Amino acid sequence: RSFIFSSDAPASPLVPPPTGSAMIIKGEKFREVYAAVSGDKHQSDDKTILVFVANADVDAVCSVRSLTHIFESDESNFSERPVESYNEIREACLSQRDTDELRTIFLINCGATENARHACGIGDNENVRLIIIDSHRPIWHGYNDYDTNTLVLLDADDPVPLP
């Protein structure tokens, strides 16, 4: 599943999209999305969260500090990696492709402007939840398609129109 948060899964079934499978929904749904991420850890200690951070981006550094504080407070198993390209993300994802440990990938300030599932090499793998926190615009047009594996969460003041 993919979620995009702008400046807001099935081996153990992933929590279905909140409120009617809308593709663009309000950022207040972050708690529901995080509850799904957090729920994975209760099913096994090995469920992994990968956090990829745009290397040269101050916004990304601040965002990841807040996010990792949440993970640490919640005692979640995660790893954080600064990246400069999708090749680095793809290599890390492919190295864990055949394991059941990888459940959630966070992309911090990368991913909103193109098909991130394809760029990361996870394609249609519904066992991996993809969450994108990105302030870049425009948002890739494919995130507007009706697809329950891709959700776009926006702040109320974001210029992208809600359906």
UniProtKB/TrEMBL annotation:
It comes from Chlamydomonas euryale. Keywords: Cell cycle, DNA replication, Nucleus. One of its GO terms (molecular function) is DNA replication origin binding. InterPro entries: CDC45. This is Uncharacterized protein. The keyword Nucleus applies. Belongs to the CDC45 family. One of its GO terms (cellular component) is DNA replication preinitiation complex. PANTHER family: CDC45-RELATED PROTEIN, CELL DIVISION CONTROL PROTEIN 45 HOMOLOG. GO terms for biological process: DNA replication initiation; double-strand break repair via break-induced replication; mitotic DNA replication preinitiation complex assembly. The keyword Nucleus applies.
